[in-house]
Amino acid sequence: MSTQKSIAIDGPSGAGKSTLAKALAKELGYLYVDTGAIYRTVGLQACRTGTNPEEEGAVAALLPGLEIGMQYGPDGLQHMYLNGEDVTDAIRQHEISRYASCVSALPAVRAFLLERQRAMARENDVVMDGRDIGTVVLPQAGVKIFLTAAPEARARRRWQELNQRGEEADYDGILQDVLERDQRDTTRAASPLRQAEDAVLADTTELDLEQSLALLMHIVKERLQA
Q1: I need a labelling partner for 40 at 20 to 30 A (CA). Which of 12, 13, 178, 203 fits?
Q2: Measured between alpha carbons, how far is 99 from 135 in angstroms, rounded to an integer?
Q3: Residues 113, 114, 115, 116: is their CA dihedral positive or negative?
Q4: What are the tens digits of pLDDT across the range 188-205?
């Protein structure tokens, strides 16, 4: 039986899961696993090959030839590789968000990636974030957090992030994307986004990054000591 500790952070798109999970892992000395980046990598391949991300058969046909790799730099940053190419920046393009959302709803893709994610938790103390970590991937996680914020706050953060990277962004368009993604993620047949019964709700609508991290640290310490 594994003695590794695992912290599962789920929540909707733009809630700050990646940023906060990464910071939390650094504080705790755990391995950070961004599962969204893995789905984005599959989505990137669908985009590059002109594959309809909503057609399960077409996307499933891509999977056997996919070589998805993850490596961690000295700073703990998770780099994603697609068939040997570092696609860490490419998968963060706004266009890839829709592809990632679509392919992540496909049972074939989720089954393909499930064991990879679980293996990481068996071999390391992890902070893992995604949409179904506490409900499907790591249902026995020692700490489960459902991280959320109002759609408007999530859209504003995404808009600011894109602007800081020098990408043109329209707030109203991003808000619409956020609402549509929420709809897809919560209603999909395969592992829909939902709060696990034993997860602690963390709403960061009114909190900045430092306050949000402090909230998560408080939840983790409280749960690990229980």
Answers
A1: 203
A2: 23
A3: positive
A4: 887 888 999 999 999 999
Contact 161, 216 (CB under 8 A): no
In sequence order, the β-bridge partners of residue 203 are 148
3-state secondary structure of 168: coil
pLDDT band of 167, cuts 50, 70, 90: confident
Per-residue tokens: 23: 């910071």
Q: How many CB atoms lie within 10 A of CB 75?
A: 7
Cα-atom radius of gyration of the chain, to the nearest Å?
17
As beta bridge partners, residue 200 has 145
Contacts of 225 (CB under 8 A, 6+ apart): none
Q: What percent of the chain has pLDDT over 90?
A: 69
